[in-house]
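Notes to self after the call with IL:
- keep both proteins in one doc
- input above output, always
- annotate only the second one for now

Protein 1:
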Amino acid sequence: MTPLRRWMEAVHIVAAGLWAGVVIATGAAAAIIFPTVRGLEPTVGTYPNYSGEHWRLLAGQVAARLFAVGDIVQFICAMLTGVSLAIIALQRDAWASRTIILARLTVYAAVLMLVAYAVLVLGHRMNTNLAEYWAAAKIGDNQTAASARQAFQKDHGPASAVMGSTAAGVFVLTVLGVVGATSRPAAASASPPLQAPPRLETPDLARRASR
């Protein structure tokens, strides 16, 4: 393994592992925030005319900031993971384990498609509905707020499924990275080199006769 590939393998594994950790951690944090805030039954002073559940407003705004920070970290990790994997794939010795490198490239491409769908489709639509929900709640337009919240909730299930699939995909990518970095291709079986036949010694009786 070349020194460049060794460094890129290290960057790839660390970035992919951190990426998976951030996805799992943000999902777990959101799962804790919402029931905790709900149990406190808060009333948010900046939404005095909103008649709906104030705990959703409070927990949602906390979780939104958490996901925003997580998205930034994920973006950095995704870029490092992809760039390092591209450099690895350009190394000749990486293709000694052809199945592993192809699996790594395939999984990374699949995860990128999931992230693109989450950001460009689900994320855009959910953020639009969320902003409308908060704005309507703040001015006391309870009907519009309820409608926007329901539209947001429709995408919550698919978004959770995409997040879970992304975490699983990045975890697999991390494992494949460890396997690819530590595996040693089997040495090609080669025929043993031809050896000169052993030198036959002259029989003792023939040596005496020649004297």
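Protein 2 (the one to annotate):
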Amino acid sequence: MRRALILGPVLAFVLVGGLIVARTGGGDVPTSDGHSVAVDAEQAPVQLPPAPSVAEPEHVAAAAVAMTGEVARAGFISRRELIESFTTPGFGPVLADDTSEQMTALLLEFSERDADPAELQVTEQPLRTRVVTEDAAAATVDVWSVLVVAPPGASTARVMWRTVTVELLLIDGLWLVDGWTSTPGPTPMVGPESPISPAIDVAEVLAWSPAVADGV
């Protein structure tokens, strides 16, 4: 605490001195040892770096939903650590446990209980976001997305359109996930000209690099 009190006036003096130098437009400026230092009149005043800005809650919510594939492919321990990296301390363990249960149910559905999660091809693509509520400390965001899963050995892949409601809390300048619920849909109808592809074909495409919009 004492050091902070000492540095405070010194920093204020330096900033004020910088303003004085900038206003005088050059010349000799005396130093503490009695000498003088020439100041370039053309020298621009020192620019302080801008304060870090807080990310928009809808961007944070969409990024969290887009991590579904990475979370699904992670092992049990690394999955928990990954989830806790973008969630609040109280909600992280809850979401990690729920996700592990859902992964077990998913593999059972595909009759692949013993499959290695690392071999899963999973991706979730956020399509649209909507801020439902927002204030200085909390926000709720709906994310409409499409989720595609192609387990190893399965004959067909699965696709699900869903809306994920993400609850966020602002902690130390960061939006962290503090709630997560999802509901199916809204789901567009697949056109008759779109045949169902084998899971291996879908998995091959899911292994491509994520698409990035031009200029992003």
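Annotation: The beta strands are 27-30, 36-39, 121-134, 138-150, 158-171, 174-184. The mean pLDDT is 78.
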